[in-house]
Amino acid sequence: MNNKIRNFIKTRVKGSKITILLAALILFAMIPTVVQAVAPAEQWNKTFGGTSDDSANSVQNTSDGGYILAGTTSSYGAGGSDAWLIKVDSSGNQIWYKTFGGMLDDGANSVQQTSDGGYIIAGATASYGAGGTDEYGRAYSDAWLIKVDSNGNQTWNKTYGGSKYDHAFSVQQTSDGGYIIAGDTNSSYPDSLIIYSPGWLIKVDSDGNHQWNTTFGKTADGFDYHVLSVDQTLDGGYIVVGCVEMPTSVADFWLSKVDSDGNQIWSKTFSGATGAYDFAHSVQQTSDGGYILAGEMGGDLGDPSTAWLVKTDSNGNETWNKRFGGGSEFDDAVCAYSVDQTSDGGYIIAGTIRPYGSHTYSVWLTKADTNGNQQWTKQFGGSMSDSAGSVQQTSDGGYIIAGATSLYGAGSADAWLIKVAPETPSVPVTLTPTYDNNLRESSACAVLSTTPYIDVGKSKSRARDVMLFDLSMYDKNDTISQATLSLYWYYPAGKTRTSDTVVDIYRPGTWNPKYATWYYHDYRKAWKPVGGAWFDVNGIAQGTAPYASVTFPAGTVPDNKYYEFDVTQLVQECVSGTYENTGFFLKAKTEGNNYIAFYSSDWSNADQGPKLTVTKA
Q1: In the chain, where are the structural domains located?
Q2: pLDDT tens digits, residue range 139-158?
Q3: How many of the other CB atoms lie within 10 Å of CB of 606?
Q4: DSSP state letters, 440-497
Q5: Residues 76/50, Cβ–Cβ less than 8 Å
Q6: Residue 3: enclosing H or E segment and its boundaries?
Q7: Smallest Cα–Cα separation from 375: which of 429, 423, 430, 306?
Q8: CATH no., domain 3-420
Q9: Tens digit of pLDDT for each residue in 200-250?
């Protein structure tokens, strides 16, 4: 097994010391310089530990509004390193802590509150279990599961494994009250010395008794499968994630679906840069039944790697993927270790960033929207070595991060808990048109750019309009959550019509407000066809599927109020650069005996003119 992979997935023994590795901090690429939204503020941070090395590897918001942390401590406990459980209140103040372990080295990688109000902890132990020592006298370890009550008092503990290295990286209580554990096992290969690290999935009952286990070992064609995280799926099965190492000494993201008995249903791989190591550290089933994976994409030809987010459907087929970083030689190194779907359908991602040319690390936090587009990013620490291994959205809409810091605290490394405030809702921005031109068939060559109204439909001749708003304040990476065009209907005053007026909005072809008429779109350049060129929501020229539409029934009269058109998709396409911002093209779906008019930007009362209200995610 390649040493680089071993550094990422091992909780391993060095002499008498187990080092619980969050991951090797040797990675990734530059964070985009444009931030799409203001990152929320840090509310507080707390450190926990003594004079030796301590870290927090997992955190969960508890039912009482506080938090539970699991990790490893060398400052407290029986000897070597011990598994460590810390309970804090909603402000991060410690309520109690517990250590678990013996004279050798032990640690915790994952914690979850259980349905009875207690906690389940997964990790590795060299003090207990079946593991012996290697030829150098180093202690082997077993996968370790500890059940405690609401006060952290141990109810039971179980070890799983054989005579070599075995570890548990992730645990989750299952719908039947038992537990599913993800890890790796070398005991399946008794003739090897940590050459292989087959992925391992263990199902136990509510008392920790073994029910079944599945290994994902080295295949006949030389492929190694490694498991780092597990999530129970809605169908009662499980989704596991990690990496597959190939004989060519490269690794890809690996995603596998198994049924409720551990039988593999399907397996998918996702490849990043050529000849690189790609590792998926975290997986979660999403609200649409698909899956979100977070990890790292190795850089091409030795370049720094990139934090990588992959979204799939329920069958593991890629929907989209996003890279956070550039991956060039002089970029920063960024890695994603944990992902959680947020209440708005987006994702919160935590990891580590190392600036180009630096040997120090900072905690890296990024929020992405439902399509993986970065909304904001934030860093914590950084003048020494700080890292994040776990993130979760909290009950108040903020975020909690667990990791380790060398910058703060009492020892060379302390457990670190960071609380980030909820995001401030985006303030809508209201824009007025830069230009709006009437296109009137009866005045086919007249530039009508200063009339106090815009009109659509037909009485004696047809009328259409083009309208442009300045969107330059937005960046191409911005996500537009809502864009509404509001038009004030005032004419024909007190009169009905013989036909409904269905006002449709399209994307116009290019036009120059100095020359735009029914006949021309620019100086001596005729519309093709005359009367205006437009594109519908499907990108079809002169298509019939509008971006937005509002019906004004024939039997109603103008009620002197605003009518709203949802133009979110069109504004997003213009902001992102999918299409040039040419504004809006307004016309009636059918044109006959249905003429109506709205106030234009040249109307004397600004409170009745057209307006575009835009809200960013």
Answers
A1: 3-420, 429-616
A2: 788 999 999 999 999 999 99
A3: 10
A4: EGGGTT--B-S-SEEEEEESSSEEEEEEE---TTS-TT--EEEEEEEEEEEESTT---
A5: yes
A6: helix 3-9
A7: 423
A8: 2.130.10.130
A9: 999 999 999 999 999 987 666 667 888 999 999 999 999 999 988 877 767
